[in-house]
Specification:
The protein is mainly α. The chain has one domain (3-95): Non-ribosomal Peptide Synthetase Peptidyl Carrier Protein, Chain A, CATH 1.10.1200. Helix content is 52%, strand content 0%. It is built from four helices and no strands. It has helices at residues 3-18, 44-60, 70-73, 83-95. It starts with a helix and ends with a helix.
Length: 96
């Protein structure tokens, strides 16, 4: 699976998450957007829900991945801080 497809799946999940968020809590829908932490309005519960949606989307494409595990949480820089960081992390998972 190439980086463009991974990014597309992540952005689709963000767009779906925005459908349930009020206007002033919308996530930025951009390939270089922040995801978690300042200045994103995403809280920890929202992050978990988004990660579950992303995991399911990858599962539907035949790639079973787990995003919120010890490997992700033990990194010195969170893979959840931005869309590019998350795409990088997923790219490593699907190529392993």
């Amino acid at each position: 699976m190439d980086r463009t497809r991974i990014q597309s799946i992540v952005l689709d999940a963000v767009a779906q998450a925005n459908q349930t968020r009020v206007a002033d809590q919308q996530l930025q829908l951009s390939p270089d957007a922040p995801l978690f932490g300042a200045p994103s309005p995403l809280d920890s519960l929202g992050l978990v829900a988004l990660l579950i949606d992303i995991e399911e989307a990858f599962g539907n494409e035949g790639h079973a991945i787990v995003l919120s595990d010890e490997r992700a949480l033990s990194q010195s820089r969170s893979p959840f801080r931005s869309i590019p960081a998350l795409v990088d992390y997923i790219e490593k998972l699907v190529s392993a």
